[in-house]
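Researcher: Before we compare anything, I want clean individual predictions. No alignment, no superposition, just each chain on its own. First chain goes here; please echo the sequence and then give the structure tokens.
Model: Echoing the first chain and its structure:
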Amino acid sequence: MKNCWTSKGTSLLLSARLLAALLTLFVGLGQSQIGCASVQVSPGFGFPNQSSPIGPSTPAAIDSSQAQPCAATRDALCSDPGCPGCGNAAKPILGVDSDMTQPGQEASWRQQRLIPWESFAYGEYTGPHRSPHVGEYRLRVNDQLEFVYLLDRTVSEEEYRISAGDIIQISSASDPDLNQTGLTILSDGTISLRLVGRVRAAGLTIDMLQMSLNEKYVLKGVKIPEVVVQVTQSDTPLRDLRDSVDARAGSGGQSRIATISPDGTVQLPLIQSVPAVGLTLDELAREVNARYRLHVRGMEITPILSVRAPRFIYVLGEVNQPGQVTLTGPTTVMQAISQAGGWRQGGNLGSVIVFRRDEDWRLVATKLNLRGALSGQRPIPSDEIWLRDSDIVLVPKMSIQRLSELVEMYFTRTIYSVFRFQGIDFSFDNRSVIVQ
């Protein structure tokens, strides 16, 4: 018996010493991970009352300002070689990064490691710089555009042609009786002059009109008419266009607000309907300016997208506020469920269905598993996707919920309502039991 107890005591002593050695090794490894970093407890943040992989008493959050420059700290805290121990004010915290998972797989909370978390100074909250939502925006029905009309002062190499509405004057150095001022070109393109009567002027250059008038005066007996034509008010079509878009007496500026109609066009002064759906703003600007140049010169039009057409998704099923949700920015499925008031008890978050119309308008669908993320069991859902206009998000019912509703429908509301009874009589072994 004495030898037996002695052997048992020796075994227990060896086990205790082995356990102590393992603990010492574990603590040493934890300290070697943080190197020369001075770790301070940050109570009430991260995972309180839990030990982290870098030491038995180290909290989930580490103040990087206390870390000293060393390779171990740099590797553990951030990937930026300039941060402190590297230089950056980012605070590392135990967390999970989506880059740690393979495509189609969900990360686990067991994969936590130190990742940079707070990289902002006090008061900053806008988040890091993001790339544009779309590489090239194409116009849609109900987009609201503002067309800004800017006078183009570029000198034209083409000769000016007189147009209806212009005002001209005629003077002669040899015969003052031929002088006439304030001559307005009529809508039929003509003017009325002494001796010669009605003369066509619209569409002619100044030199062409002078030559025509001198020839007509010679035929009327004026030997040397020497008629000179001066345009005192020109660019009538351009001035008419400016007047139609001039808002300086109101909100100011030379612009016109236009909304893309259901037929995909915008209505603009002088050129009327212009196709716009599917075009970029640059393409629309080229189309509008090309059409205006057929009628007027000296105006440059710039379209500006002022109000986008509303975009909607539809969330239905086991959510608290099913219906239409307005897309005001990039939105994921979890964000859409949150905007719909969250999910109801009995919703099957493991089989969330998203319906979508593809480019050729055919219907496609996918099934997502968000149960782990929305229940807090998984840090990063592998099925979280971005939604787009007209997507339908369905949170179906769990099987037990459907069974409960079937039982209530067929038994409570149907059978019981037709065959009303006070109870069920069970007979077994000559004994009768009535269940009310």
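Researcher: Okay. Second chain, same rules.
Model: Second chain and its structure:
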Amino acid sequence: LESAVEDAIGRRNAWRAGLFTRLPELEIWRGLAPPATADDLTRLLDAPGKALLQFVVDEHDLLVMLAIAPADPDSAVALTANVVTIERQDLAERIGRALDRTALAGVEAWRKGSAELFGLLPDEIVDGIEGAASIIVVPDDVLWRVPIEAMPIGPEYLADHAVVTYASSLSTILRAPATHSNDAAASVVVVHSPQLPSALLDKLKATTPSWLIRPGEAAGAEALRIEEAARADKDDVVEALAVHGGADATSARLKEIGDAAALHLAAPFRVNTASPLFSPILLTPVSQEIDGERPAPREAEFEIRELFNLERVAPTVMLSDPAALSKRDAAAALAPVAWAWRAPGATTVILRRWGGDEEIARDVMAAFYEGLRAGRSAAEALHEARRAVRRTDAGSTPAAWAGWLILIGKQPEFNQ
């Protein structure tokens, strides 16, 4: 029997090797490609000022690793690793206190409230990220909730010195499948304010009572703000803006993105921590007429797993519902969600960690799309949008600007 099993395994491995030789991307999609190693860091950290900050949370320890690009191209990447002894429960409690609404709502309150959390970072790690111009953060477990960009650095924030993005792993960036080319650098598709059946709303109240559905008026105002910002620019930019709201905010619109540069979804969305690929985006249900009869509308829940069936979607996707990560540990379940968006071509996914002042949030979104139209990358556009808001009196607190999480799926591009 052992001999037969060994022979069967050998034949299967040979068949699979032949399959991956013919279809090399399939090995990546199945997560079977060799994981990235420290030797691959030179490809990611290919210019001075770039850094990778990664965490591993254990029950009794916190591992913090930092890789910094060398000033000399012929030198090796500088690697630093530290183990911090702390119970996972203690770490979670520190995060909870730091992210308290009262702490987030004030500049000084945040500095005090987050001090015991960021104080865990060793000095050499802090010194390393202080000098970085762009940082990719790979969190773990409960640390997905923490806005690293809001870390106080002297009288400022880390975001005042560096462009901060997030990734689920080094391998997802360096072993990313190829994406389709996209020349429509300024086009944006907005899907907002779906008309949800009362039966669906009743179902949600019974099954997920903690999910607060944002009023359609808020999503509509958001779409209008994005449109107004586009009209403030050149006339030809407006032609590259498609807005679908109300009865037109259907799943069919997700299938008709074409060569748009960005998809903005102002529709109810919440990550399902137990089964992330079943996380629903709520859209207007579609009724299809068959043989002259109109059946009941199809369920108005577009689940993340259905993204694998789409041929193409915009490379940048923003989901603006503040309830997206409201479920406990939702942020830690983002890896499969981002991977699903990656299937039809989205390499950057932006979500909100929390709600807050909707007017300020609209300012961030409008400035973000202005940055995209100006030719900035998604990471740079969001960085500049939040910086502009942070310079105002109303937007200076972390609650106002630090709630946006930008998750990348390939090596980021920077113009500076």
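Researcher: What stands out in the second chain?
Model: The chain has a mean pLDDT of 89. Additionally, Residues 270 and 323 are 6 Å apart (CA to CA).
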